[in-house]
Automatic annotation (TrEMBL):
It comes from Alistipes inops. This is OsmC family protein. InterPro entries: KH_dom-like_a/b, OsmC/Ohr_fam, OsmC/Ohrsf. Gene3D superfamilies: 3.30.300.20. It holds the Pfam family OsmC.
Amino acid sequence: MATIQTLYLGDLRTEITHVQSGNKVMTDAPTDNNGKGEYISPTDMVAAALGSCMLTLMALAARRLEIELKGTRVEIQKVMAANPRRIAEIKLDFYFPGSYTDRCRRIIEGAGETCPVGKSLHPDVKQTVTYHYAEASSCEVK
């Protein structure tokens, strides 16, 4: 059984439905590729999936460490290449609300590197990841 169904709506737009939940997402071609840019583009969605996947795995690791990552955000920039038109690079900047021990940082960052979305991208897609930590917080490994 399908986990996702996508319907072409015309005018370079699609409606994606997550079958289990019924949640829907619209896509639109970007303005630099004849679209209106009114919804997320499919290539933006790939970049967003990478950031979301990495952050989810980091949160799972943080949960095991008994620390909270709520409020952590990732700012993502997708860089396109031409001939063929493709994603050349995805830049991810993670901003954490706390400043954790070196050991906790290694565990959290290492968890993000196991992301199956990232592992599924072609090796030619450069993944540039930068971590930014706030001050005055800690982590004790239990």
